[in-house]
Amino acid sequence: MSRASSAVALFVAAALGASAAGAADQKAKATGTLKDLESREVQVVRDPPTDVRQQQAIEQYRRFLELQSDNAKMRAEATRRLGDLQVEVDESSRATGEASLSGAELGEAIKLYEGLLAAQPDYERNDAVMYQLARAYEAQAQPEKALAVLDQLVTKRSGSPWVTESQFRRGEILFSAGRYRDAEAAYAAVIHAGVDSGFYDQGLYKHGWSLFKQSRGEECVASFLRLLDRMLVNDGKLREGDSLSRPERELSDDALRAMA
Question: For residue 76, what are the domain limits?
Fold first, then answer.
């Protein structure tokens, strides 16, 4: 292996968490006395902008994948991370209005994820790959493809930590498509995951609206009341209006309007 390829391999290994020796060395060098500090020259090194660091990492991962073919696990990790970086760059590009860049980055991320799933179907982190692939499809305005991937994730990877969020995303796609009964089932799965999932309140809210859209008034009221009980009541007492966060206030107001 050439010196350049060795450097790339070392960069990727470090980025994937293969070594913490650098941090240990820095800690060892940090010991000393106040007298030592008096004569030490202070060097201020400015970090490059985030987008520059992302592009540098992307190029290193690309080179690693070009040079390495014997370690399947490291290739899988590098491929997944490269795809994730492309999605991050896409999100940054959209935030700054650089739509032309977004399409290119997303397209490469999708190819990476699809290739990884095809080449290594038993890769232990394929649930995360599938979730990111669905996100990329959604960003490319391909909700049908995103839904198909999420369907596979929740059925074939039912024990994944990504399942609850995937169910919520399924619900959002189905709701937008007017498939309210299917959306209801997806949001019900989110609610079933429990209050600690991070999506429970949003799941109750959209579950209520899915029922509302089906003209199932009494059932939708039940979901909205459960939401309001969580938003407006604390330890059996009604919360003051100014104690509600903005998202809590918006959800509560919307639920009350739907029930009126």
Answer: 50-155
Number of domains in the chain: 2
H/E stretch holding 237 reads: strand 237-238
The residue from 127, 155, 183 where one domain ends is 155
- Domain harbouring 77, CATH code: 1.25.40
- Both 131 and 171 in one domain: the answer is no
**Cα separations in angstroms, 221 against 14, 105, 123, 144, 254:** 53, 44, 44, 30, 12
Q: Roughly what angle, to the nearest 10 degrees, separates helices 217-232 and 246-259?
A: 150
Q: What is the pTM of this model?
A: 0.75
pLDDT, tens digit, 9 for 90 and up, residues 192-243: 999 999 999 999 999 999 999 999 999 999 999 999 999 998 888 888 878 8
b/e code 157-184 from CB counts within 10 Å (16+ = b): beebebbbbbbbbbbbbbbeeebbebbb
- DSSP alpha helices (H): ranges in the chain? 3-15, 21-29, 34-38, 50-67, 72-95, 99-119, 126-139, 143-156, 163-176, 180-192, 200-213, 217-232, 246-259
- 130 shares a domain with 94: yes
Both 110 and 183 in one domain: the answer is no
